[in-house]
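Q: My collaborator sent me two sequences in one message, no labels, and asked for predicted structures for both. Can we handle them in order? The first one she listed is below.
A: Yes, handling them in the order given. First sequence, followed by its structure tokens:
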Amino acid sequence: MTHKEITPDIPDDFVQPNYDGGSIANVPATVASLFDAPFNGLPPLPKPLWQPFAGNVQRVITLIIDGFGWNLLNKERPFLAPLLERATVVDRLTSIFPSTTVAALSSLWTGVGPAQHSMVGLKLFFEEYGTIGQMLAFTPSFGRYPDALVDAGLEPETFLQWPGLAEQLAEAGIPTHSFKAREFVDSALSRMHNRGVAGDHGILTVSHMFVQMRRLLEARPNESMYVSAYLPTVDLLSHGYGWDDDTVAAELRSIINQLQTDFMESLSNEARRGTVLLIVADHGQIVTPSEDQIYIEDHTALQQMLFMK
């Protein structure tokens, strides 16, 4: 029986996650493979995507640009051409399902799909607390109370049901450094993802991130390390204006310009040696016309199945 026969109701235009080796959830195993470190999770990406780098890899950097989908890359190809020409490999990956940031980042920090790591959506029902939780802020969905679920007893460090990438790399003697907005550093979500992280670096701007990353590599040119850097602004602007708005394109161009001038071109040959840079997105975005939106009040049978509505 084929997969299509098992899931006959999936629309033809639905992009299914390729967990066998073509999704963002396969990136962590790829990182481990570049270090020749053992990894418990989904398999790495196909070898042609990373084997050109294998051999003497000392540092791997994953730059996660939230919302930087394949459609945005294609739209900005003329501008991105110099960067793409410098890349050894450029390929299209699927996200995970559901392709929401909190679930996708959890896959990028564990190397498995949502059904395995347990962060299966932006909002989750917590029977023990009698509430639906919004998992970016670990708050009850009825109000904005950041980390209130932690105050109620939820432990971020034990929430994900899979060992973290940083934990597994640490066992192989490879420290992990995380770069993200300063206000995110001590959040419950960061504590959940950062299990095993050796250095958590709070940044103020994009330029601040790239300069601090460069200084880290320059200070430790012969040391192995993994660096994960996260930028949310492309996604934030896409939610407000649409992924194909000029504002989003301008933000992406600014990030790429600073990446090249303040990081890539400013690294010394010693710091550059043995360093691999991966640029990925957690998901992309599309515009959903109002006629395609689904309203739960139109589906009475589904409502009857829900404990909370």
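Q: And the one she listed second?
A: Here it is, processed independently of the first:
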Amino acid sequence: MKTLSDILFGCKIKQIVGNDFLGIDSIHIDSRAVVASSLFIAVKGYTVNGHDYVAKAVDNGAVALVVQVGETLPDISKDVCIVWVEDSQEAVANIASNFYDNPSKKLKLVGITGTNGKTTVATLLHGFFSKMGYQVGLVSTVKNLIGKTELPSTHTTPDAISFQKLLADMVDAGCEFCFMEVSSHAIHQKRTAATHFTGGVFTNISHDHLDYHKTFKEYIRVKKQFFDELPKSAFALSNADDSNGSVMLQNTRATKKYYGIKYPSDYKCKVLENTFLGLVLQCNGIEYFSPFIGHFNAFNLTAVVATANCLGVDLEQALMVVSSLSPVEGRFQHHVANAKVNVIVDYAHTPDALENVLNTINAIRTKNETLTTIIGCGGDRDKLKRPLMAKVAVELSDKTILTSDNPRTEVPSAIINDMKAGVPGEFFMRYTVQEDRAEAIKLAMLSAQSGDIVLIAGKGHETYQDIQGVKHPFNDLEIAINMAKLIS
């Protein structure tokens, strides 16, 4: 149990009405989870306003409420303490950190942000430090890990209360490091506020999430905010080759470091060989091999090496460890199906990510084989990128099949029509439409000859397809492998 006055430390309080020396057993932002002796924090979210549920929270046993100035409340019992704050989103982060004894200060916590590469870099860093014998935590889109124990992941970055509890569990389990993806949504919604970061890593930025941020300028501003808020004791590592790489670190107090391939940087990478067998790279003049494929993975691997070095690992040792790491599931995952067709599954769901993957394939292939790309776009998400995704696919592939991704509540055919609008007239003969994703994969595998390449993009590691709120079992790679067996 914690005292309400203690867990309010750091909150920008306007007024307290009632007794703030109450004992608090649990904290919640969901009124349905409230029990006796709970604190309920009312957050005005993107689609739901928690202030509409304060009465329900009190009925369920809340003894105290944190609410935002300017919001209207129903009549509340005088026995309930009401704390008025400037910003309830920010207050949640402070309260959660205090409630769980500020766990981020007991870990070396590194946040990775950017449009593409976050999952790969965070996952590889978890694997890297695990190989070095440390207990390590991971917070990612794919999964959350405490050491080797896997926990379900529903968001790229959890809500503030779940996040702080997860960090506290890592501390209790003896974790010394934690590597996490930091999404733009989480930064904007202050889910990671009141959190102490040892370092921050910027991968790159391109067109994504404009359904939420509305403009690319705002998307950049939010990403930059993460680095602006890093403490002076932290390091800030950025991609020198990205046009916004230096912008991200303009106002940070942290120690600035850069990595890259083309431009001068603290960690300079050179690609010596790039094949379907892997990469031969050189970092600051030291050569090493990695089983990862593609130019973009040269950036990811260099970010990992640079981060490790910033955390005190000798550079040569870092290169030895990183060369032993295996590719991340669903990220340029290469499989030769039935000893015949090169199947590549990748999470690429932005125009830039898809372009990177296709450019990587085209740089490696002999051009004597056919490259078929299967691509869809998610429903209830940024519609502006749909035509761009189709345009990239048809321009950089021999054949393209436009199909369904996770349509969610939208009609798949409408999403595909949005994509078709981006296909230039001269490429009309290069694409076809197959709404059913499994049938699209079957079509590509049926037409593939020995040595051909089939890229299945968009869903990567996901093992489901979200249709009208129901998640149906679906695994791109498994379906491709099974199709190959049937048609052999």
